Amino acid sequence: MADILNDTLRTLLDSYVAEKFVNEDEVLQWIQTEAARNELPAISVRGFEGRLLQMLVYISGAKQIVEIGTLAGYSAVWLARALPANGKLYTLEKSSKHAAVARATFDRAGLNRKVELLEGDALSSLAQLAPRNPFDMIFIDADRPHYQDYLKWAADNLRPGGMVAAHNAFRSGRVLAPENDDDRFVADFNATLATDKRFETFVFAIGDGLAVGVRK
Ligand SMILES: C[S@@+](CC[C@H](N)C(=O)[O-])C[C@H]1O[C@@H](n2cnc3c(N)ncnc32)[C@H](O)[C@@H]1O
């Protein structure tokens, strides 16, 4: 099957947009270098996907965000920088190694007041966060088998008009013909989201696809 994300024109256009509209500053570059130095997997959002997330925060006026899956804090920095001064990003990470790198990231980015990292399994951290609802935005970028659980939590804890967004909706094109369990979990998640009456839904065909739902 053709890999639509490696399509030449698409790749050229992504580079064009990144060059013109994505300012990956010294801190964002440092995060990726630090992640590689600590041998973290290179699975963060890409620069222009980070910028898309940031634009969604600006457009929606989100003040309270939950991110599921921190890694080294790359997407968290994009999100948190778009928050107003009194905004808060709760970012959830189960790996203590990843969490340690992310803490260094938030120090370096000067974002400790806006970002709170909850170390541990996301489902227990979400239960801990629920009393602080309603949230304005939930970004899902972690273990695929739990995407449906995270969607349920989002439906229960977003304000009306709040947004859930899930990374890798395309699985590099494999969502069209799933090849492994994670592909199937994402295809199922997309199908559930598409017909979920609690949300207005769509997939932004940017990067590896960002599935979004706006809570009715
Ligand atoms: C794709 S990476 C996140 C990338 C990050 N959002 C970015 O773009 O910079 C997924 C992260 O989720 C974490 N993770 C996986 N399962 C988790 C779980 N059940 N609870 C919390 N974190 C989890 C992994 O350890 C990994 O760091």
Total strands: 7
> Percentage of helical residues?
40-55%
CATH fold field value: Rossmann fold
> At the first level of CATH, what is the class?
Alpha Beta
- Secondary structural class: alpha/beta
Q: Give unreliable regions as ranges.
A: none
Sheet with most strands: 7 strands, mixed
Tell me the distance between the termini. Answer: 37 Å
Element order, helices and strands?
HHHEHEHEHEHEHEE
As a percent range, the share of strand residues is 15-25%
What is the CATH homology-level superfamily? Answer: Vaccinia Virus protein VP39
Number of domain units: 1
Tell me the Rg in angstroms.
16 Å
> Can you list the ligands bound to this structure?
S-adenosylmethionine
Description:
By secondary structure, the protein is α/β, with parallel strands linked by helices. The chain has a single domain (4-215), classed as Vaccinia Virus protein VP39 (Rossmann fold). 44% of the residues lie in helices and 20% in strands. It is built from eight helices and seven strands; from the N terminus they run H-H-H-E-H-E-H-E-H-E-H-E-H-E-E. Helix 2 (26-37) runs antiparallel to helix 5 (96-108) and helix 3 runs parallel beside helix 4 (74-81). It starts with 7 loop residues before the first helix and ends with a strand. S-adenosylmethionine (SAM) is lined by residues 43-45, 69-71, 74-75, 92-95, 98, 121-122, 141-143, 146. S-adenosylmethionine is lined by residues 43-45, 69-71, 74-75, 92-95, 98, 121-122, 141-143, 146.
